Amino acid sequence: MKTKQTHARSTPALTQLKSETGSFAVVMALCLMLMISALAFALDIGYFAKEKSSYQACAEAAAMSAAENFCYGRAVEAAETVAYASNVLLPEDSVTVQFGFYDAYGEHLKFSTYRDFAAEPDEDDASDSDYPADETNNAVMVTIENTVQSLTGFNKEKKIMARAVAYVPRVSIVSGRYLSITSSNLEPVKVNNGNIYAKKKILLYGPGVGENVKAASGKIYLFQESGTTFSKIGLIPSDDLPEMDIIVNHILPLEEYVEKMKQVADITYTPDDSGKKYFYGTVHDTSGGGNTRDCYFDFSEDHDEHIVVFFDTTGFGGTINARITPHACLGFGDGWSDPTLPCMQQIGPTEAKGSSMKNVTFIANCPITIDRNHALKPQVPLGGFGDDQLNLVSTKDIGVFSGNNPLKGVNFYCQRLRFVESTLTTKYSEQDTEYYIRAITSTHNIELKKTIGSAEDDFTLNFKFGPPCPAVVPPTLGRLVLSAE
């Protein structure tokens, strides 16, 4: 018996259904691919944005660290340490550090690239630089640049750049109590280029106020001679110094700053280290039952990099003084060459190692004295411009008897600063009529005095000569706004 085979025939409706099912699958596949691409794109955009944010936070932290350390020649190292130790994975040479000036107080017109930041000009070609000629570096700009792979692999790699600038606020004179600037015989004295601040009073006897000086204090007095008497004339506290209150309230406490610097000092001496480099001698006086050590330091030896020297007297009894002078025994006139004197017996005659004392931060937890040096020829200037400035920090007082060693860029931070006798003088060097200093005292007075010179001498205290050091005011992040915006 034969079996009849039947064959299903495709109807038009069935054919259409199969066609629509295939098309739907293709559409769904395309839609799925688009959805995956869109999701990958969204994930990569979010990832790149997160990386950009992380890079920016890293750049800001690195800039702050660089600004904290740029007074001590460690800005680049500090920035790189913070950046490469962060959670951002950075290849070598992806961090760039650039020094410059940040106009925090709007004293200049906007610069060419950024409104408030001008990069330090190239030493070889400064023709195109708009760096202000009368300013010095106070800021560090950190740039972090890297090519980042996409998270999903669906998109191309992206170049990410983050840039931040941090600056150290400028402080010229901050007195923890009174500030007095006096001139004997009413010799003219001017103060230029700075902000002066005192928590109690500012007393100016005889001097004239120079250019670009702003003063802030509870009471300010300016005295000038009128016949045979002094008369008070009007020096009014500036109303445009609100930032000074903020700055003063954020100055790092003296003891805290000294302890911080103790941890990072390049060289640490104790009173027992006499005879070593920079610390060349001690006069130990035990006569009459006393116990006094005068420890002599000379930083005039040339060195290429900034050095931080800490003199630690902790645990040593008696009275200890750190004395800064290039000539311990021949520097006080012919009488000090007497071989019977303790100085000659214990130290002997010495000679300066270099032409100036500069590019040094010296910290001591005892009083510091800058000795007079009338007999020294040639002069040994203290400090210098730019990075050559000299920073002196003491947990006690600092007394200055500079004689004919001009102050050409010295920063002081101590309890009390006192310029004694012939400090501000033009008697021994007529060409050195301008001294460059800045000073902060924590609890006591600042007393600046000029006592030797003729009535015709014109003498100026200038507060603008180098980076705002020592870095006792915490740095502040600046804004990098393009000038074209």
Keywords:
485 residues; alpha/beta; 5 helices; 19% helix
Give a quick precis of the structure.
It contains 5 helices and 26 strands.
Rg, rounded, reads 33 Å
| Number of separate strands | 26
- Can you give the mean pLDDT? 77
**Form type:** elongated
Number of helical regions: 5
Question: Approximately what portion of the residues adopt beta-strand conformation?
Answer: 25-35%
How many domains make up the coordinates?
Answer: 2
| Biggest β-sheet strands, sense, barrel | 21 strands, mixed
Helix content: 10-25%
Distance between the termini: 98 Å
Structural class: alpha/beta
Q: Which spans of ≥5 residues are poorly predicted at pLDDT below 50?
A: 225-236, 328-342, 425-431
